[in-house]
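I am writing to request your help with a piece of structural work I have in hand. I am sending you one protein, given as its amino acid sequence and as whole-number tokens for its backbone shapes. Kindly check, if you would, that the fold set down in the tokens agrees with what the sequence suggests. You will find the record immediately after this paragraph:
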Amino acid sequence: MKVAILDDWFDTLRKLPCFRLLDDCEVDVFTDHVKEISLLAKRLLPYDAISLFRERTPITAELVSQLPNLKVISQRSVYPHIDVKACTERGIVVCSNLHGNTPSYAAAEHTWALIMAGMRDLPAQMASLQKGNWQIGVGKSLYGRLIGLYGYGRIAKQVAKYAEAFGMKVVWWGSAEGRQRAAKDGKVIAASRSIFFSQSDVVSVHVRLKPQTKGVITAGDLAQMRSDGLFVNTSRAGLIEHGAMLAALDNGHPGKAAIDVFDCEPIISANDPLVCHPNIIATPHIGFVTEDELELQFKDIFGQIAEFKNGRPINVINPEVLN
């Protein structure tokens, strides 16, 4: 079986123990990113299987219509970037382990790292020290401050544990259904959306991106944040109203942002206005990028390909293809 692994930008995956699951396959690892569908289709034409690296490459109807040899697509977690209907119509099996109640500890940890870096202004302090200027400004302690968590999911719950361990007060907001679940679990729900954004010292967003949540955080929401507030997003850039983040920072509400996700990735410009804004801490979508997390994810992904090759497909999200 010929397997294409897409978007492994640093050629990391072949170094993982789980790569051995593909020993019986002919594997090509692509470390670049191809957006143009005609070029991508030409590249993928010989392959029986595609291994996706998160949502870096959308699998559209236009793309799969040009891949007559493709038999299986393997990935992990939710799949808004895959046109499952188009795959089903062409007999392509889509496998994805949705991993139950297991949170991404790596993403939660990175969220917390950004919160601490933002509240203590670590990048600016480091830059000052490296220039021989010693201290600049005064940071903020986390103890006793209020963190607002938007979205009542697995990662947010883990971040809440870190916040409580640091002595922060936690308040929740999100969808009506999410707020109901949080209230049932005895969590503190903000009195209103406006109060959630205006009173929190830190707001961190943890929501899946889907059509219903696109732009769920509006320019008006950000405008209500305090001038000394910190906004954190390690989920998806599309959750924020288009253009609102940069405008909010220009207007000083919130005063700072710490962001790991962007509208167009990868960013290769040294002058991106959001990345280079003086009031932002920006990281290149590394929230989930640890050796431990990649081994966990790709053990599932490569295992799904191996099981499909052996005639035992698992975690199939379009089982009608198998009939």
Observations:
- The two ends are 21 Å apart (CA to CA).
- The first strand starts at residue 2 and ends at 5.
- The mean pLDDT is 96.
